[in-house]
Amino acid sequence: MAIRPDGTVVGSLSDGCLEQQLVADVAAASGPSVRRYGKGSALIDFRLPCGGGLDILIDPSPDRAACRDTVALLDCREPAGLALPENIYLPTRRYLPALRIHAFGVDPELSALDRLALVMNVPMVCMRPESLSLGQAPDMASPDRWTATILLFHDHEWEGAILHHALRGGSFYVGAQGGAKAREDRLSRLRAAGVAEEDLARIRGPVGVTPSARTPNALALSVLSEIVFEYDRIHPHF
Question: What confidence tens digit (pLDDT) does each residue in 126-184 have?
């Protein structure tokens, strides 16, 4: 969370009451320090609604150059680390590039996923058959480690070249919709094309956190939930 000189808060740590306390504490701080808020804190007149406690690093004069360098690495889709002053608990905060999604397919499923990703503020590239060439890889860079690839086709002939393209990259999630027969045929075609078994094992099917979604919106929610969960699993969280 950041606090601008005028007291404007960017980000959040709680439900609002903690943020306002931090605005005052940052303004009064003379240097970096770790303070306890909530349970176990010396501030007996301030309690968190959940009844828990947080140890928070307050830094009134952060290393702006280091912050800019960290942001620059993330913008280049590279992981980054930011050294934290006066922090015996966490000397370095690790960051990963933001989640992205490469989605290929047709409506209504593709549009439903696009709408939901927009609400979740997850950047997504959508490609439909009119912007693809059958049997050829999409005209874009292969996905990196922090990009998910999802195929939402009814005509599965479009899938081969796209899956080849996705598997060449480091995509943490590669999924394709389709029933049991479609999944079997998909793997058979890719196996015949020389795709290694370890790569075939990366392809998820069925997709989503629910075994069967009956509407495009339900499928979109199911798929996005699975993608976000898998991205969260590779995040260092410290």
Answer: 999 999 999 999 999 999 999 999 999 999 999 999 999 999 999 999 999 999 999 99
Query: Could you report the per-residue pLDDT of 216-233, keeping only the tens digit for each?
Result: 999 999 999 999 999 999
- Distances from the Cα of 109 to the Cαs of 37, 98, 106, 223, in angstroms? 45, 23, 6, 10
Place 45 in a pLDDT band, splitting at 50, 70 and 90: low
Mean pLDDT of 43-49: 68
Is there a cis peptide before residue 62, judged by omega within 30 degrees of 0?
Answer: no
Q: Say yes or no to pLDDT of 44 above 80.
A: no
- Whole-angstrom CA distances from 73 to 69, 96, 109, 145, 205 are 6, 9, 34, 14, 33
Each domain of the chain, given as residue ranges in start order, spans 1-61, 63-95, 100-234
Closest CA to 159 of 104, 101, 224, 216: 104
Q: Among all chains, which residue has been given the structure tokens 């079997």?
A: 184
- Sequence-ordered strand ranges (E) for the chain: 2-3, 9-10, 33-38, 53-58, 80-83, 92-95, 100-105, 124-127, 147-152, 173-176, 203-204
100-234: CATH number: 3.40.50.720
What backbone phi and psi angles, to 5 degrees, belong to 53? -140, 155
Interhelix angle for 216-234 vs 109-119, to 10°? 50
Contact 222, 213 (CB under 8 A): yes
Q: Are strands 124-127 and 100-105 parallel, antiparallel or unpaired?
A: parallel
